[in-house]
Amino acid sequence: MFPENHPHAPAVRAVEVHHPTPITPAVPAPTVPVQPGTVPAVASIVLPDGRIVTGYAIDHARPEPVAAKPAVSRAAVNIALGGVGFAAVCGGLLILTTFITALTALITQLVTLAAVLFGGYVAVQIFKPSEAKSGHTFHIRKAVIKRNHFHG
Question: I need a labelling partner for 53 at 20 to 30 A (CA). Which of 33, 43, 71, 80 fits?
Fold first, then answer.
């Protein structure tokens, strides 16, 4: 209980012991046996070894039958199923529109990325010094717009 390297013994304490005082039970009121209204029939049973056992047959207390629950009407079932179906359709449409919106945003971003990359490639080709240009030729001229008509 104490470690081996403990230099001194534990202090001894005075222990006070409490013993419970028994309580004398109150004398219960005597119960009066109640005779049944009718005398039950005496039953005799012959056991397989030939002995006969005679005694009173005792009926067990039977619980009262539970009142039958009223049947749920078909209209209530149809309304409940209709509500569940409506909620499922609304959820499906919400997911579908969310998917279409996300797909549209993805396509827009891809088109924008392609335009930026292609525009950057064209700008690099145009503004390169003539000795570093590739074999592609880009003809850029000033466009003239007169009276809402393009003259190139």
Answer: 33
- Of residues 60 and 47, more confidence is placed in 47
Q: Under DSSP, is residue 2 helix (H, G, I), strand (E, B) or coil?
A: coil
Distance CA 72, CA 80 (A): 11
Bridge partners of 35, per DSSP, are: none
Indicate left, alpha or beta for 57 from its phi (over 0: left) and psi (-120 to 50: alpha). beta
What are phi and psi for residue 31, nearest 5 degrees? -90, 140
Where is 150: in which H helix or E strand?
A: strand 149-151
CA angle (118 as vertex; 113, 142 as ends), nearest 5: 130
Residue 5: predicted pLDDT: 64
Name the token pair of 80: 């409940």
